[in-house]
From TrEMBL:
Taxonomic superkingdom: Bacteria
Taxon lineage: Bacteria, Pseudomonadati, Pseudomonadota, Betaproteobacteria, Burkholderiales
Keywords of this entry: Pyridoxal phosphate
Ranges of residues in domain Aminotransferase class V: 27-238
Pfam families referenced in this protein's UniProt entry, alphabetically: Aminotran_5
Stored Gene3D superfamilies: Aspartate Aminotransferase, domain 1 (3.90.1150.10), Type I PLP-dependent aspartate aminotransferase-like (Major domain) (3.40.640.10)
Residues annotated as transmembrane: none
Listed InterPro entries: Aminotrans_V_dom, PyrdxlP-dep_Trfase, PyrdxlP-dep_Trfase_major, PyrdxlP-dep_Trfase_small
Name of the molecule in the record: Cysteine desulfurase
């Protein structure tokens, strides 16, 4: 029997929904950053109040600080199906990919190949393209210029024995297209390449089983998954060993420090465990007890997805049948996440975004760091797109508010 998300219970876990200054405002800018759950806010408050000192020392408060940070790695790893030492927390996904690219540059030789796409957020594209100055061959897996989608058939001829990295996105932050990660990873591995998968636009709709996907590196932003402003990297053990320590030489024994050369934000790392606290609360409220961690993760991810599908269908139906807007990305709800980008036909993106804001709709108008994608589709990045993004805590009433506001402003 299908389990229905208890939206009232969910919204009780997010202080923003009780915030007077946000009353009556419908939040449709989640792809830029979600609301933080109470569990994260509580852990952050606790850390700053009780353990805001150097962690891993001899004082009880210092030991507690270190234990809170370790717990975050352990609990996030459980939900992602990996080892705690494979979870690395840095200041942002953009910073994390930069560190990764520099690490790979030390291990690659001139003539080695890296495949990137023009569908990605620039964070998982530009850092790799810059390695061309060091003799690395950069190949682009291009989108279909009409649909903006990536086709697996277009990747195959780019792969060769010299391919060392395939960097691509799990889900486009403009189109919402969900790419076949497991299939792409298998193709890359067949020629000996490693995969770097940007999961930023996907993870807010449910954490993934990283081993099941086959990704060597999987990245996403915790501030888009109801947490603090941290970037999470899963780097599988063999890939971490291949890349080596990127931080202080005397931290060689601490693998979770290898890819955070600036050092961690102690409080935010500790607070990251609150995301899993929230998922645990969701599971306990909706499902029987006693299920092992990874199955729990699958159940929660399925619950989040099922809550979004009905609302997404309503928005897609509006966009498909209204000539005043152009829908970007797949029209089929099964092929996409709840991130919907539109081109207004009779008004500028900026004008529509402002009019929606005046009606209590929080959304965005921009290129959202996917400049290459818009250019490849013949769209003006400076004009941008109107992006409407939501997650499982969005209500039916808020979707109605959005659709009525869209109809009025268009």
């Amino acid at each position: 029997m299908a389990v229905t998300l208890d939206t009232d219970f969910v919204r009780q876990q997010f202080p923003a929904f009780q915030e007077p200054s946000l009353a009556g405002q419908a939040f449709f800018d989640n792809a830029g950053g979600s609301y933080a759950c109470q569990q994260v806010i509580g852990r952050l408050d606790q850390y700053y109040r009780q353990t805001k000192l150097q962690p891993y020392g001899v004082h009880p408060a210092s030991r507690a600080a270190g234990q809170a940070m370790d717990s975050a790695h352990e609990r996030l790893a459980e939900y992602l199906g990996v080892l705690p030492q494979e979870v690395h927390l840095g200041p942002s996904t953009s910073q994390n990919t930069y560190v990764l690219a520099q690490a790979f540059a030390k291990r690659l030789q001139a003539g080695d190949e890296i495949i990137v796409t023009n569908q990605d957020h620039e964070a998982n594209s530009g850092v790799w393209r810059r390695l061309a100055s060091q003799g690395i061959v950069i190949k682009e897996w291009p989108i279909d210029p009409v649909t903006g989608q990536l086709q697996v058939a277009a990747l195959e001829p780019l792969l060769s024995p010299r391919t060392k990295v395939v960097a691509f996105t799990h889900c486009s932050n403009i189109l919402g297209q969900i790419n076949p990660v497991a299939e792409v990873c298998a193709m890359a591995h067949a020629v000996g390449a490693r995969t770097v998968v940007d999961g930023v636009s996907y993870a807010g709709h449910g954490f993934v089983d990283v081993p099941q996907l086959g990704a060597d590196i999987y990245l996403f932003s915790l501030y888009k998954t109801f947490g603090p402003h941290q970037g999470l990297m899963v780097i599988r053990q063999d890939t971490a060993q291949f890349l080596g320590n990127q931080a202080h030489y005397f931290n060689e024994a601490f693998i979770h420090k290898w890819f955070v050369p600036a050092g961690p934000d102690h409080a935010q790392v500790a607070a990251s465990a609150g995301v899993v606290d929230y998922f645990d609360a969701l599971y306990a409220h909706h499902f029987p007890a006693g299920t092992p961690g990874q199955k729990k993760s699958h159940a929660v991810s399925g619950l989040l997805r099922s809550a979004e599908v009905g609302l997404l269908q309503r928005l897609l139906d509006f966009c498909q049948h209204d000539p005043r807007v152009r829908l970007l990305g797949p029209a089929n709800v099964a092929e996409r996440a709840a991130t919907v980008s539109l081109i207004p036909q009779n008004h500028s993106v900026a004008e529509v975004a402002q009019r929606l804001a005046d009606k209590g709709i929080i959304c965005g108008g921009s290129h959202f760091y996917a400049v290459r994608l818009l250019q490849a589709m013949g769209l003006d990045p400076d004009a941008g797109v109107l992006r409407l993004s939501f997650v499982h805590y969005t209500s039916e009433d808020e979707m109605t508010q959005l659709l009525e506001a869209l109809d009025a402003v268009l």
